[in-house]
């Protein structure tokens, strides 16, 4: 589809700065864009690309001020990143094929009611007593265990496994290879050095508007529920242990690991490979940098880095000192020699 910058600006409630009639037929990153592409500038680190990009149009903040001539047409909006996200969602919805009905072979247990618009892909399995909401899409090779509840507009991509009794709320998306409701890691040591398994009889609850990346594991609770609250977004390759709770609108990047019974609050932003010890509490509105190790409970509004995680500014200061250790060591040796020389002269 081809559209002019002026037409696009009207769609996104923006204003045009430049050639309003330039046409757009594709999307690209600002450093890779060619003629006909729309791109965006949201991160100041990429500002220099706006002067060299071959894009036909660039989404920028309303208050963007160019320091050099810009060849591309600028479309000024309140939030370029969100505007682009909205546009890409529109394109994705138009490109996605409409899927309905049951592909064969698949298995749906007797008594399970599927609304008319449900899609069940080939080799999918739906167990006994499963409740399925409206407009649910279950892609090929998905396993939905007995007694699972799926809300409206749920999408389970190929290979997702949802164990028995788990609950998935409205508008949730779970990507390929993710396992929801596998056993928590519960074993009791015995006198002979072996371990006895502790049955995990709880469930997993995903509240509304949760999205889970691929190959993530969310363990069922020993008792009660492991709870992923409304609006949480989890990346690929994340481990959530038994009885963990993740608060509303918290986001986590890949390879985060959360040990059992840890409670994480709302609106946290957690970088890749962060590790959380078990049985701790993390408050609201925290930012935790990549590869941090969180060993103790954390309050609200903190910025943490390092392992063990400390205040981000303190970590940065210590890192500067660490880089100087070699020179500091040489300086200390030189001072020791000088002091020894002075003492020998007495």
CATH superfamily of the largest domain: Hexapeptide repeat proteins
Task: Quickly give the CATH architecture of the largest domain.
Answer: 3 Solenoid
Shape annotation: flat
User: What structural class do the secondary elements suggest?
Assistant: alpha/beta
Q: How many DSSP-defined strands?
A: 39
Share of residues in helices: 10-25%
> Main β-sheet, in a few words?
12 strands, mixed
Q: Order the strands across the largest sheet as they lie in space.
A: 8-10-13-16-19-24-27-30-33-36-38-39
What Rg is obtained from the alpha carbons, in whole angstroms?
27 Å
Average pLDDT number: 94
Name of the CATH class of the largest domain: Mainly Beta
How many helices does DSSP assign? Answer: 4
Low-confidence stretches: none
Measured by DSSP, the beta-strand proportion falls in 25-35%
Terminal-residue CA separation:
90 Å
CATH topology of the largest domain: UDP N-Acetylglucosamine Acyltransferase, domain 1
Q: What is the count of structural domains?
A: 3
């Amino acid at each position: 589809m081809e559209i002019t910058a002026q037409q696009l600006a009207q769609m996104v409630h923006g204003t045009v700065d430049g050639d309003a009639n330039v046409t757009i037929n594709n999307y690209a990153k600002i450093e890779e864009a060619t003629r006909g592409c729309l791109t965006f500038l949201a991160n100041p680190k990429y500002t220099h690309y706006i002067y060299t990009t071959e894009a036909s149009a660039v989404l920028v903040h309303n208050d963007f001020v160019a320091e050099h001539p810009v060849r591309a047409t600028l479309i000024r909006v309140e939030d370029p990143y969100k505007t682009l996200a909205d546009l890409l969602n529109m394109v994705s919805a138009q490109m996605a094929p409409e899927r309905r009905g049951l592909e064969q072979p698949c298995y749906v247990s007797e008594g399970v009611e599927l609304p008319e618009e449900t899609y069940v892909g080939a080799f999918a399995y739906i167990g006994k007593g499963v409740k399925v909401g409206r407009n649910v899409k279950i892609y090929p090779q998905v396993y939905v265990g007995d007694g699972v509840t799926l809300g409206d507009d749920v999408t389970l991509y190929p290979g997702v496994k949802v164990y028995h009794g788990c609950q998935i709320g409205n508008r949730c998306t779970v990507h390929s290879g993710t396992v929801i409701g596998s056993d928590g890691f519960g074993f009791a040591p015995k006198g002979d050095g072996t371990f006895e398994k502790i049955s995990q009889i709880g469930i997993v609850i995903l509240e509304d508007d949760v999205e889970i990346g691929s190959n993530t594991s969310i363990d069922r609770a020993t008792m009660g529920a492991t709870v992923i609250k409304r609006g949480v977004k989890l990346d690929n390759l994340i481990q959530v242990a038994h009885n963990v709770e993740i608060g509303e609108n918290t986001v986590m990047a890949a390879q985060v690991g959360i040990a059992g019974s840890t409670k994480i609050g709302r609106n946290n932003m957690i970088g890749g490979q962060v590790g959380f010890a078990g049985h701790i509490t993390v408050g609201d509105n925290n930012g935790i940098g990549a590869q941090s190790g969180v060993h103790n409970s954390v309050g609200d509004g903190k910025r943490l880095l390092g392992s063990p995680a400390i205040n981000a500014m303190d970590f940065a200061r210590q890192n500067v000192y660490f880089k100087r250790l070699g020179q500091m060591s040489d300086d200390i040796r030189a001072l020791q020699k000088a002091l020894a020389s002075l003492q020998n002269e007495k």
